[in-house]
From TrEMBL:
Keyword Iron in record: yes
Coiled-coil region list: none
PROSITE patterns: 4FE4S_FER_1, 4FE4S_FER_2
Native organism taxonomy: Bacteria, Pseudomonadati, Pseudomonadota, Betaproteobacteria, Burkholderiales
Superkingdom classification of source: Bacteria
Classification via PANTHER family: GLUTAMATE SYNTHASE [NADPH] SMALL CHAIN, GLUTAMATE SYNTHASE [NADPH] SMALL CHAIN-RELATED
Protein source organism: Pelomonas lactea
Keyword set, alphabetical order: Iron, Iron-sulfur, Metal-binding
Gene3D superfamilies, per the entry: 3.30.70.20, Alpha-helical ferredoxin (1.10.1060.10), FAD/NAD(P)-binding domain (3.50.50.60)
Record carries keyword Transmembrane: no
Entries under SUPFAM superfamilies matching the protein: 4Fe-4S ferredoxins, alpha-helical ferredoxin, Nucleotide-binding domain
Protein name: FAD-dependent oxidoreductase
Start and end residues of each 4Fe-4S ferredoxin-type domain: 484-513, 541-571
InterPro entries the UniProt entry points to: 4Fe4S_Fe-S-bd, 4Fe4S_Fe_S_CS, DPD_II, FAD/NAD-bd_sf, FAD/NAD-binding_dom, Helical_ferredxn
């Protein structure tokens, strides 16, 4: 069997499940430890480097890190429903608890290098590009049709989930790096923009068009039926301040959840969500569905919309077919919000500008570099591959910025720079580590909410109040420090089996090399998505095999080992950002 290559950065990165799952590869355990130590400025900094919008994401992220969290796999003994660490809400703790001194930590942009880059749209992807390139010395200009930056973060996420002050603050950090901000300047011609002589253009204009439902009665009820994302924008800007008494929301994604909860706050007596799919198959995050139901909003699954019922020019109800029974039902309503998906729209990009589009209406891109068929034009965020989420848009922005930087330094954009990686022993003494390795048995902490009467009375009252200091500390201590790796030195091992005896998860086995290793471990390694750490070179010819899937990183193996063959080493991986570190030749002079 092939032994594990511990020199490969992916080997230990994959063990840090939360960081591996995060599109921006945020070093989650690192910032959680800093929060536990009360070092909130530094915790925010770790986030800011990776994901750009810690305060925004700490409230609104889709949290791909949390389903991946090891805690949710190893907690069966403590809870009927194992739950991950509240990673997202701890990010908010860092954002809310940082001091004004954080501003002194913000880096200064490098000297201008003479290159100009235009960003179309001021959403998370464009702003991530702008931040990374501004720091690297580029003159970046961001164009947007709105008066303030943020894109769909500002226009489509309700204020009861994300206060405007948080958006202003974190967008301000980016514009404060010398980024030229062009509000109210919607780009309506790619050819005209290219004629302005920019060295590169990044398109991050999102997926601005909401899908409609052309069902019977749609034209007759046009005044009472609205496209969800456009309606949310109108609410955000104060153009819509009230709704009709009975509202039906069509769709099962996060936008539908925002629509129904907003309608509830704008005065609707009755709000109902109807979705074609089953409840479990809805695209909305589980917590988004739970929040809506917590506020008394029913979600009716397997309801296929058939028609808009109307009388004398007024909407009276929505007719559905129940997919499981074939029965037709009418839900009385005075207003309908359609939130069944979003589409991309690029009417401002001339089809003879040199950018090829596919049959799906999306630009043809290199998936690694985000480069279009016009070499100096790049796409990212929802504009690249369709609607996703904020953290994915940020990750796109980082990669596109690297590509732009490499292109303008004459280097291949499809080659990606390696991450910065190191391993540092945490040994402080014979049986003492520099981190707290005690395993907390506490269950996941609940985020407190504002009182229902107050929260539902206003569209601007933030519902979640965030963790206080004591709860944040308690939750941070649930983290298993998965980035503190168990590193094995075969030459020091005397095969005494002390580590095998003490391991609480039975995840270490000394056995003969050969096939079927997963099944021959003391506790079979059942999760094929996580590797088994295999080390050879032992004196008996056997191998050490450790199931990385369920290891608690408790350090007991290293504490018990009489020869120091096991060590606990903190693994840090930071992806390369635009600038000298992302280039093949850091000393290369600027390309003319």
């Amino acid at each position: 069997m092939q032994w594990t290559d511990t020199a490969n950065p992916a080997t230990f990165h994959k063990v840090v499940d939360c960081q591996w799952a995060c599109p921006a590869h945020t070093p989650v355990p690192e910032y959680i430890r800093l929060i536990a130590q009360g070092r909130h400025d530094e915790a925010y900094w770790v986030n800011w480097v990776s994901n750009v919008f810690p305060g925004v994401l700490g409230r609104t992220c889709d949290r791909p890190c949390e389903p991946a969290c090891r805690r949710g796999r190893v907690e069966e003994k403590q809870a009927a429903k194992p739950e991950p660490v509240a990673i997202c809400r701890l990010k908010r703790v860092a954002a809310d608890s940082k001091t004004d001194e954080f501003r002194a930590m913000l880096p200064k942009p490098a000297a201008r290098n003479g290159k100009r880059v235009a960003c179309v749209g001021a959403g998370p992807a464009s702003l991530a590009v702008a931040r990374d390139l501004a720091l690297a010395g580029y003159a970046v200009t961001v164009f947007d049709g709105e008066a303030k930056p943020g894109g769909f973060i500002r226009t489509q996420i309700p204020r009861f989930r994300l206060p405007e002050r948080v958006i202003d603050e974190e967008c301000g950090y980016i514009l404060g790096l010398g980024v030229a901000w062009r509000p109210g300047q919607r780009v309506d011609s790619m050819k005209a923009l290219l004629a302005e002589g920019y060295d590169a253009v990044f398109v991050g204009c999102g997926a601005p068009r909401g899908r409609d439902l052309n069902l019977p009665g749609r034209d007759a009820t046009r005044a009472q039926v609205h496209i969800g994302i456009a309606w949310l924008s109108s609410v955000s800007f104060g153009h819509v301040t009230a709704v009709q008494p009975r509202v039906v929301v069509l769709g099962g994604g996060n936008t539908a959840m925002d629509c129904c909860r907003s309608a509830r706050r704008l005065g609707a007596r009755s709000v109902t969500v109807a979705v074609r799919s089953g409840y479990a198959q809805m695209k909305a995050s589980p917590w988004e569905k739970e929040d809506a139901e917590h506020e008394g909003i029913p979600i009716l699954d397997f309801h296929v919309p058939l028609a808009f019922e109307h009388a004398e020019g007024r909407l009276t109800g929505m007719r559905f077919r129940k997919a499981q029974t074939g029965e037709e039902v009418v839900i009385p309503c005075d207003e309908v919000l359609i939130a069944v998906g979003q589409e991309n729209a690029f009417p401002w990009i001339e089809r003879d500008a040199g950018i090829v589009f596919g049959d799906d209406g999306l630009p043809v891109l290199d998936k690694a570099s985000f480069q279009s068929t016009l070499p100096h034009v790049f796409f990212g965020g929802d504009a690249a591959f369709g609607p996703k989420n904020i953290i994915t848009a940020v990750a796109h922005g980082h990669e596109a910025a690297v590509s732009i930087d490499r292109l303008l330094h004459g280097e291949p954009v499809t080659q990606r720079p390696p991450p910065h990686v190191n391993l540092v022993s945490q040994k402080m003494g014979i049986h003492e580590w520099s981190y707290d390795n005690a395993i907390s048995l506490d269950l996941r902490s609940k985020v407190p909410w504002a009182a229902a009467a107050e929260a539902l009375a206003s569209i601007k009252v933030e519902v979640e109040l965030g963790f206080d200091a004591a709860t944040a500390l308690k939750e941070a201590q649930r983290c298993l420090n998965c980035d503190v790796q168990t590193v094995f030195a075969p030459k020091l091992c005397i095969e005494c089996d002390a580590c095998v005896d003490i391991c609480p998860m039975d995840c270490i086995t000394f056995t003969d090399d050969g096939p079927g290793l997963r099944e021959r471990l003391n506790a079979p390694a059942l999760n094929a998505d996580q590797d088994v750490y295999v080390a050879g070179g032992l004196k008996t010819g056997r191998v050490m095999a450790k199931d990385e899937d369920v290891c608690l990183h408790c350090g007991l193996c290293a504490e018990r080992c009489p020869t120091g063959a096991w060590d606990m080493q903190k693994f840090m991986l930071v992806t390369a950002k635009a600038g000298a570190a992302c280039r093949d030749h850091a000393t290369r002079k600027e390309v003319a």
